[in-house]
Amino acid sequence: MRLELLAFTASAAAIVVSTAACEDSKALSEQNATQAVAKLLPVVKEDVEQVRRGLPEGAKKLGTLLEPDPGQDLAGLQKAIQNARGSVHDLNVAKSTFFSFTDTSGTVLRSEADPDLLANKSVFAAFPELKKALDPNSGNVEVFGEMQEMRGIRTGPDFQWVVAHPVKDASGTVKGLFVTGWSYRRFAYHLEETAKRDLLEAAKQESRKKMPLVYVFVLRGKKAYGAPITPDVNAQAVEGLDLIEKTASGLWKGSVDITGRTFGVAAQRTPELGPDAGLAVIMSEI
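^ that's the sequence the OP posted. Answer follows.
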């Protein structure tokens, strides 16, 4: 009987220790996720501002490089786009996933990258509000939405932020639009890699061999967009937290269980990308 009591006591103590360890791990994951969000918020702000600052200057430069009929020499147009972007520091380091030139009908004549999936496609069909950029005094015109040819992944949900600026010739006549922006999934990948580099550096400084699992999501309304290889179940779990609602008053942190693993969660809004936009990080200690 005494042996059975001792065995029970030892078992109960082990459960208490295990439970305490789990709670400590969850608290640490929440703390690390919160720190990651704090580091990424200024990154998002600067990434957005790079595009907003750089595009007007890039459009001005592109205007000086265009042929009278830009569509007559598409190889030359592609080189002009490359040179215009490369001559502006903000655009040269921007996280954009496309740079394109459209004619005044909104049809993409050429993009910087190959293969050029946007060629001969109308951005006005997908984003009618971009027509406002045909006004020579419009400045940047920004829209959000979906266009198949701007996707950053082959399958699965994606979303795009698109910015257009008029391109004028020497007489001030609008010749077309300089269009850029990014896929939310590719932008999430950029932010996730940034978070991983910070975690790796911290692990080196603390002589730790293991790094926590980390996933970064760009939020838009009730949707959560992760990096291209992020498991769908993770995105679904984040969407189920309704983080835009929870971050109405600022930073929110908590936890979520995904396929038997507990992740710390931190999220905050990113007004640079709209009132219903945000950033979320989920992290789990290994």
